[in-house]
Amino acid sequence: MPTTIIATVDPARSRVDAQTEHAQLISMDADPPEGDDSAAGPKEALLAALAGCTSMDVASILRKKRQAAETYEIEVSAESAEAYPRVFTTITVEHRLSGAVETEALRRAIELSATRYCPVSAMLSAVATIEHRYRLAGADGTSQAALVAVTGPAGPRVV
User: Fold this and answer.
1) Domain with 50 in it: what CATH number?
2) What is the torsion angle, in degrees rounded to the nearest 10, for the CA atoms of residue 128, residue 129, residue 135 and residue 136?
3) Please, what sign has the CA dihedral across residues 63, 68, 73, 76?
4) What's the total number of domains in the chain?
5) 53: how many CB neighbours lie within 10 A of its CB?
6) What is the pLDDT of residues 25-81, one digit of tens each?
7) Is residue 98 located within the same domain as residue 55?
8) In this structure, are 47 and 35 located in the same domain?
9) CB within 8 Å of 19: residues ≥ 6 apart
10) Domain with 3 in it
């Protein structure tokens, strides 16, 4: 089943207001001087889509495993090629959680999202190397951080 987005463009400002099939709005804007920087740029929106996709997977898997995260945030950062079209070359995804979450449950949830479930990650992995990491502050006061998987044009590698 195809996905359809209809976008209205303000050619004077380079602002785009896209609407999904279910009438949700996604706004994007260019940096000045082409735009007025009133919304995320398209590349930022792509990184936000990756953050949303993988975090929804991980949160769902953790709930199914009865893992009680108190807080959950995700940071996605990327490096771009110097030459146009300046595609992303490397991306780092760091899941930051706190609470009563078992390290192995978190590691496995991130691995499944990175290598199997998240379509945004799969699409970006065709052209960029993505490191999938976590930082966990346990309910007992301990802190752990690790690299879980690396995906990219060469295929996935689970650490």
Assistant:
1) 3.30.300.20
2) 90
3) negative
4) 2
5) 19
6) 999 999 899 889 999 999 999 999 999 999 999 999 999 999 999 999 999 999 999
7) yes
8) no
9) 5, 6, 7, 8, 25, 26
10) 1-39
